[in-house]
Amino acid sequence: MADLSRIRRNKFIVLGRAGMDIYPDPPGTRTKEASQFYACLGGSSANIAVAITRHGGIADLITSVSDDAVGHFVINELDKYSVGRDYVKLIDGEVRTSLAVVESRVEDHQSVIYRNGAADFELNSIDFASLDFSAYGAFILTGTALAGEPSRTATLDAIRLAREAQLPIIFDIDYRPYSWSSGEEAASVYSEVARLCDIVVGNDDEFGVMANSYENGREFAQSLAKSGVSDVIYKMGQLGSVTFTQDQTIETGIFQVEALKPTGAGDAFMGSFVACLAQGLELDEAVKRGSAAAAYVVARVGCAPAMPTTEQLEDFIQHHSGLTAA
User: Fold this and answer.
1) Average predicted confidence (pLDDT) for the chain
2) What is the pTM of this model?
């Protein structure tokens, strides 16, 4: 098990996808009725990296984007949020940067994801061969990177290098069914990877996939903690979350808000959670603040641009009625 206190270096290397999100404008507009759109940075790993930088941390991204107008839009957005891109590769050819058309509405919400020939699946181990993992406080990976090759092999190589550097490894399961050939394949790969990590975060559906049964997802999450994973966070949407360690169970409610959209909560949770650990907060307080960030983001347009700063998150918590009972 890695030394989790290294997270306090507040410097993270994040592996996974970055893309463009497009929102019908104004908020509440259906895509099929839209005449104008708002574009911003998206992709789970890019969003997590932004959340970290918004809290004053350092986040460098490992990914691939297409060498075209959309890929360069992503590059420009990463620069805007001060996300390091020394390990972001531009790729020629027919691959394309991920694109998501996302409605800022909850009722009859539509999110349309374009990932045929996704550029981020072209990530190769050579793309980060010069990276010194020991210079970081933790390595964060998102599970979508494991869904295709050569990205899967590259991700497994990155895990090996991080473990050799005794770097804490944080795994956001990030299961996207459309990226996998089957749920069984995803379950096998995710379960193997989870046991190599120090912190695993996912929702009830994702742990259900790993357990090959939704009903057994919570038990599976707890079993990971008992088998050596330091912290396992099992999220349940409106029902809050349960954090399992080897010797305790922490139940956490949610900050209720009037949601504008159902997307972005998981990325906000992860980014703010690790940022709070880096600030020296205890595990239960970091989970609480991650939950606050999730609520903050679903009440605002976009994912990356909605990520709160430390001051905004503190203000949100102070003026909110508080967590619901778990």
Assistant:
1) 97
2) 0.97
The Cβ of residue 12 has, within 10 Å, a number of other Cβ atoms equal to 28
Q: Where are the alpha helices (DSSP H) in 41-137?
A: 44-54, 69-80
Query: Can you give the pLDDT at residue 218?
Result: 97
Question: Above 90 in pLDDT, residue 278?
Answer: yes
Q: Taking 80 as the threshold, does the pLDDT of residue 326 lie above it?
A: no
- Check whether 74 has a pLDDT greater than 80: yes
CATH number of the domain located at residue range(s) 4-17+45-71+81-88+120-318 in this protein? 3.40.1190.20
Cα(12)–Cα(58) distance, integer angstroms: 6
Q: What is the reported pLDDT for 324?
A: 87
- For 303-322, the pLDDT digits (tens) are 999 999 999 999 999 999 88
Tokens representing 138? 């933790």
Q: What is the dihedral of CA 215, 221, 223, 229, to 10 degrees?
A: 170
SS (H, E, C) 159-212: HHHHHHCCCCEEEECCCCHHHCCCHHHHHHHHHHHHCCCCEEEEEHHHHHHHCC
Return the bridge partners of 200, or none: 171, 232
Residues 6+ apart with CB under 8 A from 152: 145, 146, 189
Cβ atoms of residues 52 and 271 within 8 Å: yes
Domain range list for the chain: 4-17+45-71+81-88+120-318
The beta strand positions in the chain, using DSSP E, are 11-15, 19-24, 37-42, 58-66, 84-91, 98-102, 111-114, 138-142, 169-172, 199-203, 231-235, 241-244, 249-252
Q: Is 265 a residue whose pLDDT tops 90? A: yes
Rounded Cα distance, 2 and 230, in Å: 9
Q: How far apart are the first and last CA of the chain?
A: 29
